[in-house]
Design brief:
Strand content: 15-25%
Strand order of the largest sheet: 9-8-7-6-10-11-12
Structural class: alpha/beta
CATH class of one domain: Alpha Beta
Helix content: 40-55%
Order of helices and strands: HHHEEEHEHEHHEHEEHEHEHEHEHHHH
Distance between the termini: 29 Å
CATH topology of one domain: Rossmann fold
Radius of gyration: 21 Å
CATH architecture of one domain: 3-Layer(aba) Sandwich
Number of strands: 12
Number of helices: 16
């Protein structure tokens, strides 16, 4: 078929590689476009980023030696507005990985109804191997190397895996000083996710987890015949997104049955002080433990369990909140859950998804569940540009509106196309992008 995803990729010179994360993601997006009968030229445009920036930059280490680091910034599409997306510091960062994440940012921004496009960046580094001074120097050198490839009206980075509010503060400060940005409006708007004292938005730290929970509140009742207060859930990955999702679900009375991260897997030890009011793990205390120790292992009152026991623990809701492609065939076969709320970006492999579908496990798609972070990043960007400060009540209320609207689009598109929810989410996002291309045309 001339407009099939395989034909589009073949015409662009892709060599088929089922293990390539970019080809996996873009094939899923193009499949949704094919179902919509998206014009061929738009499928071609969506299949490749507009630009891919790769930089190599030296950083002085504390001992006086120098190391050379590799960094990326991929700008996928900006038909809706400036590029927007996180920067991650991780040893596994690669060009195709960043490209895949940039596509998903385009989809998230469109689905959430934001006037922003999709971008993503990263540096190949394990930030835990660096001192704070080395991390600062690496950050400043990276932003200097990117130069005018970023800017408040062009491309606005944000935190991701391995980066945080402090890193964003260094990024903004470097940009301001290199670009004399204080004389051209709010240079702080070049990045979001900054500390509140330096132009960050209240509610940004919990935004992605809060968005996940808003989606669960709206959609879980139609998937399982049980109120949220009586549900059990497990979480893989207990960083910012996983911990906030767990804490917010616990506030509803939900029971945290198991948690796993890079340090191991744990479950409640019956009758121990580590249990929360619902009898599950105390999510708030666990988050404090992870902040202090770096992982969930040895949480007081818990008991260690194997990976197999973690996945086979019976729960109503499973929340993958770690890195991409954590749920492959083996995990999908073991998983003992009714619903998955994809808090992480692309947490399942295509083969894993097929197993989940065959087993009747329902999946709330990632670009819907985890778009809360970019929504509140958009709020921060607006506050910076308009010299405003919003209170938490307003941020949460506006976030809920965006999440509820996005969920409604996905449900309506699922009915229209008679497809799974992930395909519906991509299709809903592509509809908006296609309409803007129709109105604007392709210049010149």
């Amino acid at each position: 078929m001339p407009n099939s995803p395989a034909r589009i990729l073949a015409d662009l010179g892709f060599r088929y590689d089922p293990a390539n994360i970019y080809q996996q993601v873009i094939t899923q997006v193009l499949d949704a476009g094919h179902r919509l009968n998206l014009p061929r030229h738009l499928q071609l445009i969506m299949a490749e980023p507009k630009s891919e920036v790769m930089v190599h930059f030296p950083v002085e280490m504390d001992d006086g030696s120098y190391k050379l680091f590799k960094g990326y910034r991929v700008q996928h599409n900006n038909i809706l507005g400036p590029y927007k997306g996180g920067i991650r510091y991780h040893a596994g960062v690669s060009l195709d990985h960043v490209k895949a994440l940039s596509v998903l940012m385009t989809m998230k921004c469109s689905l959430a109804g934001l006037p922003l496009g999709g971008g993503k960046g990263g540096v190949q580094v394990n930030p835990n191997d660096l001192s704070e001074d080395e991390l600062m120097r690496l950050t400043r050198r990276f932003i200097a190397a990117l130069g005018d490839n970023i800017g408040p009206e062009h491309d606005i980075p944000a935190p991701d895996v391995g980066t945080n509010a402090q890193v964003m503060a260094w990024m903004a400060d470097t940009y301001i000083n290199f670009n004399n940005a204080t004389h051209h409006g709010s240079g702080a708007a070049v990045v979001t996710g900054k500390p509140v004292a330096f132009g960050g938005s209240v509610g940004r730290e919990k935004a992605t987890g809060q968005g996940v929970v808003y989606v669960i509140e709206d959609l879980l009742p139609e998937m399982i015949d049980k109120p949220l207060a009586d549900t059990t859930y497990s979480v893989v990955g207990f960083g910012n997104v996983g911990s906030w999702t767990a804490k917010l679900l616990a506030a509803h009375g939900s029971h945290l049955a198991a948690v796993m991260d890079h340090t191991g897997a744990i479950a409640p030890n019956p009758g121990s002080p580590g249990n929360g009011a619902s009898g599950g793990l105390d999510a708030e205390a666990l988050a404090q433990h992870v902040e202090a120790t770096g992982g969930v292992a040895d949480f007081p009152g818990s008991k260690p369990i194997s990976e197999e026991v973690f996945y086979t623990t019976k729960v109503d809701l499973f929340v993958p909140a770690a890195l991409e492609q954590m749920i492959g065939i083996d995990q999908a076969r073991m998983l003992n859950s009714k619903v998955i709320a994809a808090a992480a970006t692309a947490p399942t492999t295509p083969e894993g998804e097929k197993v989940l579908a065959a087993r009747g496990i329902k999946v709330l798609p990632a670009i819907l569940c985890n778009c809360g972070g970019v929504v509140v990043s958009y709020f921060e960007w607006m506050q910076n540009r308009q010299s405003e400060i919003w209170d938490l009540e307003r941020v949460d209320a506006e976030l809920r509106k965006h999440m509820r609207s996005a969920a409604a689009k996905v449900l309506a598109t699922r009915t229209e196309l008679d497809c799974d929810m992930r395909t519906a989410a991509y299709a809903a996002a592509l509809k908006h992008i296609a309409e803007v291309y129709r109105l604007r045309g392709i210049f010149p």
